C-alpha cells in the first residue's frame, strides 16, 4: 500500500528537520557566518566603491543574504510556522534569524549601515545549536 500525500509530506518535513539539526550542517553555517563577519569587518567607509575588494565584499554579502533566507525558509518548512510545539516561531532563537534576514534585505535597499551586533548574536546562536544537535 502506498503512502498518502500527507504522510509523504510529513516524512519529507521530518527528514528536513533532521538535516537542519545535524551538527555538520550547523558547523557549515557557523563557518560561513564567521567568514561573513570577517568580510563585513574589513569594510571601511572611505574604500573605493569601484575596487575589486569592494566588489567581492558586496558579492559575498549578497550571497550570504540569500543563504540566510534559504535556511530560514527551510526551517519554516521543516518545523512549521506556528502550529507545532517546536515550530519556527515558537523557538526564541528563530526571532533572531528573522530579524537578521529582514534587516539584511532592508539594508540592500535603504543602506542604513552595518548590523554586526546581530551577526555576533547569530554566531552565539549557532554555537548553542551546535552543542545541542546530534551527529
**How far do the termini sit from each other?**
32 Å
Please indicate the percent range of residues in DSSP E strands (runs of 2 or more).
under 5%
CATH superfamily: Voltage-gated potassium channels. Chain C
Number of domains as seen in the coordinates: 1
In N-to-C order, the SSE pattern is HHHHH
Radius of gyration: 17 Å
Helix content: over 70%
Average residue pLDDT: 82
What is the CATH architecture descriptor?
Up-down Bundle
Per the CATH scheme, the topology name is: Four Helix Bundle (Hemerythrin (Met), subunit A)
What topology does this entry show?
Layout (H helix, E strand, L loop, with lengths): L4 H16 L2 H19 L10 H28 L12 H19 L5 H17 L3
Helix pairs in contact: 1-3, 2-3, 2-5, 3-4, 4-5
Written description of the protein model:
This protein has 135 residues and is mainly α. It has one domain (15-132): Voltage-gated potassium channels. Chain C (Four Helix Bundle (Hemerythrin (Met), subunit A)), CATH 1.20.120.350. Helix content is 73%, strand content 0%. It has helices spanning 5-20, 23-41, 52-79, 92-110, 116-132. Helix 3 runs antiparallel to helix 4 (92-110). The protein is elongated. The protein starts with a helix and ends with a helix. The mean pLDDT is 82.
Amino acid at each position: 500500500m502506498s503512502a498518502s500525500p500527507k504522510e509523504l509530506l510529513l516524512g519529507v518535513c521530518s527528514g528536513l528537520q533532521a538535516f537542519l539539526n545535524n551538527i555538520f550542517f550547523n558547523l557549515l553555517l557557523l563557518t560561513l557566518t564567521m567568514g561573513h563577519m570577517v568580510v563585513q569587518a574589513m569594510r571601511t567607509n572611505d574604500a573605493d566603491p569601484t575596487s575589486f575588494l569592494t566588489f567581492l565584499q558586496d558579492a559575498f554579502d549578497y550571497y550570504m543574504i540569500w543563504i540566510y533566507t534559504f535556511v530560514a525558509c527551510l526551517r519554516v518548512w521543516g518545523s512549521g510556522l506556528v502550529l507545532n510545539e517546536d515550530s519556527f516561531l515558537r523557538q526564541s532563537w528563530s526571532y533572531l534569524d528573522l530579524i537578521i534576514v529582514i534587516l539584511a534585505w532592508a539594508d540592500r535597499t535603504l543602506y542604513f549601515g552595518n548590523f554586526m551586533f546581530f551577526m555576533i548574536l547569530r554566531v552565539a546562536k549557532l554555537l548553542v545549536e551546535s552543542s545541542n544537535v546530534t551527529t
